[in-house]
Amino acid sequence: MNTKTKLPLNPCAGPMSRRWFLKMGTLGVTGLSLGDVLRLQAAQKKAGGAPDTAVIYIWLAGGPPHMDTYDMKPNAPEEYRGQFQPIRTNVPGIEVCELLPLHAKCADKYSLIRSITHTFSDHGGGSKHLMTGRAPATPTETVNDSPSVPSIVSKMREHIDIGLPNVITSTDGGRERVDTYAMGSAYLGPKYIPFGVDGDPTRPKFEIKNVSLNANLAERLEDRVTLLKSMDQMRRELDSSGIMNAMDYFNQQAMNVMTSARAREAFDLSKEPEKLRDRYGRHSWGQRALMARRLVEAGCSFVTVAMENPNVPNTFYNWDTHAVNHDNFIDMRNRLPIYDKAVTALIEDLHNRGLTKKVLLVVTGEFGRSPRVSIDNGPKGRRYGREHWPGAMSVLVSGGGMRHGQVVGSTNARGEYPQDRPLAPADLWATVYRHLGIDQNATIADHTGRPQFLLPSGEPIRELV
Q1: What is the spatial distance between Cα 101 and Cα 134, in angstroms, rounded to a whole number?
Q2: Tens digit of pLDDT for each residue in 330-348?
Q3: What residues does 377 pair with on adjacent strands?
Q4: Which helix (H) or strand (E) segment is 377 a member of?
Q5: Taking Cα atoms as reference points, which of 415, 345, 419, 324 lies closest to residue 68?
Q6: In what helix (H) or strand (E) does residue 369 lie, and over which residues does it extend?
Q7: What is the pLDDT of residue 71?
Q8: Virtual CA dihedral for 339, 308, 153, 34, nearest 10 degrees?
Q9: Phi, psi for 273 (deg, rounded to 5)
């Protein structure tokens, strides 16, 4: 790929969207040429085997309230501490919200970071900062000016062929567009956009789009690709934008998923014991978390699971619980039990299956919520909320060979800002790259040809590693 060529800032907007690429893949647009296959094979031999490591990234879109989950302040003034009480966990000195009783039973299997902070209070700026580890050029919107971490992982591990996409994002239906959560690939080009899987796995008719093909259709697709291979090189040479190469790559991914027994196996939740599926919860959050475990076990490097809409009564769409949107405390009473079940099932499952060195679990949103409770006396009556708050946020990590059963950092008495051990999103990603065996000081050329570090700042969090 010519990294000096300037690509559109929003490769998924307009008529040539990524979904369009994949649809065209099912209609017979060609896959990789023989020359491409040989080059990929040569690159794979040259690069050698990557570490057998993976990441599951749970994205809490909207921003979860740290003071109603992992950073309780029972001694703060009433207008700060909220309506919930902390409970003890199985690790002395660590407490979590009373609505997270399953977290309390397995605190020895995860660690909490309470002192990550940044300055971007808009969802767009906050999402871009968290997804890239860099301060974005603009404080709003979700079109990245730097590649997201999933896109960088896709680039750095592109030589790995596992029979299904190496970087996958699982979202609610219609939320799989790359710019929804600031996961764009920026100057890396559209080829490195994560493979999107949307929908609710609990639905009877759930299927991976462009995957559920019968054997005859899959065979016809392969025949058509074979017939069109002779046109590949000429078409690619005429293309100077990188879009055509990205189409080829997406088509290859789609065809791999459609025809690979390994892919079908990884996505098939019916292979799991009913009791385990119940433990995760028979809802989209739980079943997508279980699917993520199956995908990394099958060899995927990075799986993002968006836990946005819990689809239960008396909750807002996502974690953005302003008083004008919804009553924060009513929302948490209905949302947190679902979250509690899904996340702790994944933590325990990774431990029970011996995956805690291979798989690193990271759980975060784009920022925390305001320590001081806001009030809205609107037409629906009095509602209590918490506003955007990048000054402090809590992050859960588990697995990855990390140290568990601890709290890293702390906030002041009112939960406003770090009191000790202030950390940035870049420190979190430096820790993730270390686990994946990716050198954060490696460089990739941007649109102008200027080399850019994968992560120009940040250090692995020493308490974890």
Answers
A1: 35
A2: 999 999 999 999 999 999 9
A3: 382
A4: strand 374-378
A5: 415
A6: strand 368-369
A7: 98
A8: 120
A9: -60, 140
CATH value of 18-453 in 3.40.50, 1.10.150, 2.30.30, 3.40.720: 3.40.720
DSSP β-bridge partners for residue 339: none
- 435: amino acid identity, one letter: H
Residue in the structure block whose two tokens are 């977290």: 103
Q: Where are the domains of the chain?
A: 18-453
> What stretch of H or E contains 395?
strand 393-399
Q: Which of 327, 311, 373 is nearest to 81 (CA)?
A: 373
Predicted confidence (pLDDT) at residue 94 exceeds the cutoff of 80: yes
pLDDT for 205 equals 74
**Distances from the Cα of 294 to the Cα of 231, 290, 353, 359, 435, angstroms:** 37, 6, 11, 11, 19
Looking at 133-166, list the stretches that DSSP marks H as alpha helix, in order from N- to C-terminal side.
149-156
5-19, 133-147, 327-341, 432-446, range with the lowest pLDDT:
5-19
Q: Note the pTM of the prediction, 2 decimals.
A: 0.83
H/E stretch holding 432: helix 425-436
